[in-house]
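Friendly challenge for the regulars: who can give me the structure tokens for this chain first? No prize, just bragging rights.
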Amino acid sequence: MTVVLLAGRPRVRIAALRWLLWLGLLVCSGIVCAQTLEDTDVWVQDDSIVLRVRFNASVRLLQLVPTGVGEAFNLRFEMLAADDAVLRQGSEEFRRLPPGQGLPEVALRYLPEPGNRVKQMTIRLSAGQSLQARQGPNSRSIDLLFARPRAAPPVAPVPAAAASATLSEAPPETPGEVRLEHRFGLVLQSVPAAQRDTLPAPPVEFKELHVFRNEVAVDGRPEVQLVVGFFADASQAEAARTIARARFPDARVLDLGATVDANPIDSLVAQATVGPPEIELEAVPLLDQARAALAAGRADDAVVLLGKLLKLPPNSASIAAQELIGQAWEQDGDPRRARIEDALYLKLYPQGEGAGRVGARLAALGGPLPASVGSGATETAVARKPWNGSVAQYYYGGKARSRSLVNIATGIDQSTLSHTTESAIVTSVDMSGRMASEHGETRAVIRGSGSSNLLPGGQSESSIGSAYLEYRRENSGLAVRAGRQSPISGGLLGLFDGVSLATPVGAGLRLDVMGGVPAGALVSAPAERLFAAVLEADAITERVSGNLYLLQQSTQGITNRRALGSELRYAGDQWSTDALLDYDVDFKLLNAVSFNGSFRLAGQTTVTLLADERRAPSLQLTNALISSGAASLKDLLQTRTAAQIRADALATSAIAKQWLISVARPLNPHWQVSSDLRYSEIGALPAVGDFEATPATGGQTSVSAQLTGTDLYSSHDLDNVSLSVIHTPFFRGVQFSYNNLTELPGQREITIEPSLRLYSQHDNQGVKLTRLGPGARVSWRFSSRASLLGEMLYEAARTDGPTNHDRTNSVFFYVGYRYEVF
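First reply, four minutes later:
Bragging rights claimed.
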């Protein structure tokens, strides 16, 4: 996570940050730090708050459930390529973001599921909010988009007598009265009031217009209209309707100055500036409490209160809250965040009563922050506290008892065995801080997780997942990072120790340069070096972006891998695609080619397609060391030619293929159904040196269906039922699973997650395997920063074959704590 350390803050905070970073280094020194989540960034983009989750692996978004407003979500994604330690990761990861800028508190929990390339992440919000997901700007990121409540421009009602007049035709009759120059709007879609959350986002062509919901009564039935505006005359509105009809065939022009019976502008404006009674009852006290907190010098409390207020639907306190939150951030010692909020006030309310005060304060702070270089969307970084992170520690234990019956010539032999399968202390560290200055910021990051094995003869390894310093220049966009890090952009490049630099080189263009030593290589070799250069184009056109990259790796001065690649992305209103091509120059072969697409159909149906073919592991000369046992390529060149080494390396890299089609559709506000059809295969490998021949896996097909329910018996529960059928040339399997996430009534701090799995398999040798696994996970957040967590899983397995019958009962559990810093 990214956090801000401000110059001039109390020294105790800086000392605490240094102590926490030192603690992170100390704890991480004795553990294996394999992590999948690399970092998170948050910023405001138009009417959304974007939370970008960056990974230490290439991933593809599959599905986010449920759709619409909720407090609990489940994100599914495919892990396409990653270092071996990331693929084998067994411990979960956690990120928590405190509330602010209309964003509720967000808790992310990653569930690794070793051996399964389809991963899951649960998303918990402290308050219900609309959430959508999209693939990020490269294969290592996924964006979560939160709808940001926006109030309509402050406009006073127009008297009925002059309802059809424009500003030039009828000047204000009373002091302070404002007329509408633009009296026409466009109704894109109408739905029953009970289905207000199903209204879609407007087309990108209307992103500069005001978007709001208008509640009306049609034949006595309440409806909600999605309206954009405003237009000076009917011809402009009609031209906009022509654009919108592709997605909204029933779009119609709305005359805001029509008669009272049609749709009075008095009612429309009132709904845009005054919220429903229940919202007003919540908003007004929050505003009073925030003012009192500011007067008492408690700026931190004021920021939290105003953040809660601003995430409510538009109401009578929205304008005052937007003015006060800039003042609150300034008093809290964060002038950068204050400039963001003040600039937003002036954009939303240029004629507001506080525009003069806000403008003067913004000018004194240095004016608005420079606009970001990108696609043209309004993007504003969301600042955070001076430090952020967590320390967690768990004890993992497990026992198994097995009983075996074997048919032998003299009868039946029976044996029983009980043993401890696991005993380990798992520690995870996630610490980061940032020192902000007038011209930029410096970040310090350290992350890792791993285990200390307590079993006799058990070994504990040691490494660090991320440990780097980074400096970002505010105006120029220059960023420099040094230390152990993940790549700052796309391409097939893993974890490395070194330096990276990113700098704009033109409008919408950025050059990323990285150099150092691979940190997660499959085969270690002496004197390894890597270099990568990536030219990123954020906006080839309004909807198209991509990159070109060059990758060079060497060992002892010998080229190990040299590749050219490209990623191309298209983001439209109804569909988006992402393609990757990686070509190895030395082997003169494609190393990877991948295509991912997401399509929106009628009825909020989403179709996801994935086609991926790549070498596993990636093509590189050091793959030949696997089969030869040699310590380096120079040693191997003493007995083999370069052509033979290249042939051996190629012979140890299989071709892996996979295809996926996934369809998801909401049935109603509480239920969503999805189905996946997946095909995968890994090609055969010949015998090479010490490397034994590996047969092809053959085509493996799986069909799965999932039913997800939300808010079935509370305002924040999540239920998931899935059924999968797997077919391979060697066995057939069926798996049923059920997972639940719920909070105790009246005790949101306590979460219970029961689960159940049933798996049955028949193979070609006549062996039948059955597994039944109930489990439960409990977490108790007993303070704003500390939580206790525990989980227990029980599994009963039965194997029946022609000559043996085995029964195994096992128990797996963990218990521990997590302490968060923010």
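The first strand starts at residue 5 and ends at 6. The chain has a mean pLDDT of 77. Your move, everyone else.
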